[in-house]
Design brief:
single chain; about 230 residues; mainly alpha; three-stranded antiparallel sheet; 10 helices; 3 strands; about 5% strand
Amino acid sequence: MTADTGSGLELSELAADRALLGRTSTAERVAGILRERIAQGFFLPGVRLSEERIGNALGVSRNTLREAFRLLTHERLLVHRLNKGAFVRVLSTSDIADIYRVRNLVECAAVRGLGHPPYALEPVAAAVEAGERAAERGAWTDCGTANIHFHQALAGLAGSERTDDLMRGVLAELRLAFHVMDDPRRFYEPYLSRNREILTMLEEGDPAGAERALGYYLEDSRRQLIEAYPERGD
């Protein structure tokens, strides 16, 4: 897929993000805006990001935008093709397997490392409830976002800024895989009850049980996603 930057509506919404840059437009802030838009699916895997159109929408220089692209390429969200520009990355099944390997290492370790209860579970609970509300509305994209927040919050139980940064990148990359799936409900709905189950175990002071449940959960999710993933080349 080599389509150019998305529809005019998307770029119009992107132009509204210009206010987020403030007076000190930096490549890091531009990268943050584009990272969020990619995670939301405004720029889908395989889409070319137009320097001219995005630069005009955000009101930033080409050099600033190129630096933002470089940062996102380093995060594995974009790929640069010689003489063609920057494209939103298309994951392979090998990429997905590696992402889940990292998730298992980080998320399970965060739960395993918990001391004595009570734990600071407010972000975990908020994500579980947000996912359940989104499912009731049939808003499966929102449900997927809540699911990402749930796993980010689990990793956050480690109390490590470095772990938080790592998981933000890993989970943003994972969203690229879900953006090319045909039926998001199929991949989010079965895990709502499992999210609630893990939260309940932690509330009851059972991190060992929560870790076991999380390990099975991640393995089931990995297998389900890889089996259904439409393998696509660059």
